[in-house]
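[audit] Reproducing an earlier prediction to check determinism. Same input, same settings, fresh worker. If the tokens differ from the archived copy the diff job will pick it up downstream; this log only records the rerun itself.
[audit] input (196 residues):
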Amino acid sequence: MKTITERYRDGPTILGWELMREAQGTDFNALYGFAVDVTQVIRAIGDQHLIVLGTDAGDSAATSIGANTDGTPSNFEKLHAVPGIDLIDVHDFDSPTLTLANGFAAQSAVSISLQKPLFFGASAIRLPSTSASDYSTRAGIISAKLVASRDGGAVGFLVYDYAPRWSTVGWSFDGRAEEPLSGQAGVIARNSSPNP
């Protein structure tokens, strides 16, 4: 981590460091200690990029987001309260009937409590085929999720997974003409904020 951070600490194309990808487990103390140690390493180098822990949706014992009966913060909240963790990253995969993922309300409450922004680091709907109607349906669902996340207070939304010239139907999108997510008039461009 130290080597990577030193090399890229001034990189203007890096939004932030995600310490883990959908971290989960049974040992809260180990995950908490990891978050503290790694954020301290990054900040000691002088890197000012944002830091995201990168947990699951609060589904494991170590990351649980449910309310504790004794009034103490949830593990999810304690992990994101670590000094140096700047963003709360949430994901929403393949839930076409929900405008926002099931855990969004609880994740949003933690964001508000800690006064740390909430960011959709990955959101995707599986494309079942390359028919025009499936492209259109997926684009409509992603568009609704993007708008709902913004209206719900999220500061960003990353559509997963841009893969140029993909060949296997699934999560990916690219710049092909029939893809309504991309392009200058696509869903992503229409919902992007202009650069200041």
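[audit] rerun output stored. Observation attached for the diff report: The beta strands are 16-18, 50-52, 88-93, 118-124, 156-159.
[audit] end
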